[in-house]
Every structure is written in C-alpha cells, then in structure tokens.
Amino acid sequence: MLYNDEMRRDILSRLSGYRLKHTLGCEKAARELARKYGADEEKCAFAMLLHDITKNFSQEEQLNLCKKYGIIPNDVEKTEWKMLHGKTAAAIAADVYHAPADVTHAIAYHTTGCANMTLLDKIVYMADYIEENRSFDGVKTARKLAARNLDKAMLYGLDASLRDLVHRGKLIHVDTVLARNWLMNNM
Ligand SMILES: [Fe+2]
Ligand SMILES: [Fe+2]
What is the whole-number distance in angstroms between the Cα of residue 133 and the centre of ligand 2? Predict the structure, then answer.
C-alpha cells in the first residue's frame, strides 16, 4: 500500500491556508485525470499530496535539505531557489513517506517538466496547473484541453510558462525547454 488515511492526515497537517487548499484541489484534479487517462489513481493522488510539502520553506531550509539529500542546485536553481521545492519535496517523499521512484520523479519535475515524461509525470504537472483554485488567464482553456488531450494541454501549459518567464525577465530552467521540445517531437 502506498499510503493510508493516517499518513494522508499527517501530510496534510504540514500544510495550511492556500497551500492546503491548493494541495486538496490538486489531489482531486489528479484523480480525475488519472481516471480519464488510465493512470494509477492512488499514485497520482499520493504525488499531489506531497508535491508542495516544502514549497513554503525558506532559502536556508531549501539549501539545508539539498545538502542533506545530496541535491546539487544548478545555476538557475541557485538564483530561482524556490524551484528547488520539487526536488526537496521528492526527497522527503522518498525518505519520510517511502514513496516509490515513479512518484518521487513526478514530484521532482512538477514545476519544470522534463524530457521523457511518463503519464504520471504529465498528470501531476497538469493537475497542479489546472486544479479548481487556479484562476490565471488561460486556465479555462488549459482545463478544456486537459479533458480532451493531455499532451496538447501540457504543451499549452509549458508554452504559457515559458512566455510568462520571458515576459517577467526570469531565468528559464533547461528542463522546461527539454520538456517542450520532447513533447513537440513526441505527440
Ligand atoms: Fe509546486
Ligand atoms: Fe502546486
């Protein structure tokens, strides 16, 4: 068994406010996508419960976790250190909650995407993007696409993220570029 009610309560007790609401929204959205696309619903839900478990941590806490778990931040992650929450959450998911490798992979790449994404990776990325508490421009289009074609929805999300990063003058993580190129060549 991946997790039980007690573990779920324990995970949720670490979250509060918007982060808790968002996580529950993600859990629900991921279950819906898993049923639609034939993925393992419990793995998708488990990944969602844990995906933002370190999101509210400070830079110091993120870097301490990186040291503890042997995560080496690249140049982009050193500047955009909040991006590290995917990788630190994945490490905690494995260490504390004994999450299997495919679940921790989906958690690690939920912010950036990556090449060769599995169905589980895609569902976690998209559920995070379209869950019911999200309200950005384009979220309705993303939800419609996700209901019809997961890859088209992924490309829509990745393109929008890349445009947003350029618009805000931010660094772009290489994994986001790799995710988009891989998707375009494989859909
Ligand atoms: Fe996140
Ligand atoms: Fe999230």
Answer: 11
Give the Cα separation of 128 and 25 in Å (integer).
8
Domain locations in the chain?
5-185
Token digits of residue 30: 């991921």
Tell me how far the alpha carbon of residue 77 lies from the centroid of ligand 1, in angstroms.
14
Amino acid identity, residue 44?
C
Question: Was domain 5-185 assigned CATH 3.40.1800.10?
Answer: no
Residues with CB under 5 A from ligand 2 (ion): 52, 128
The Cβ of residue 146 has, within 10 Å, a number of other Cβ atoms equal to 25
Residue 37's identity, in one-letter code, is Y
For residue 143, give Cα distances in angstroms to 39, 126, 135, 184: 18, 9, 11, 20
Quick one: DSSP state of residue 136?
A: S
Distances (CA, A) of 84 to 157, 185, 187: 20, 27, 28
Q: What's the pLDDT tens digit per position in 149-173?
A: 999 999 999 999 999 999 999 999 9
What is the 28 CA–ligand 1 centroid distance (Å)? 16
Could you say which residues of the chain have pLDDT below 50?
none
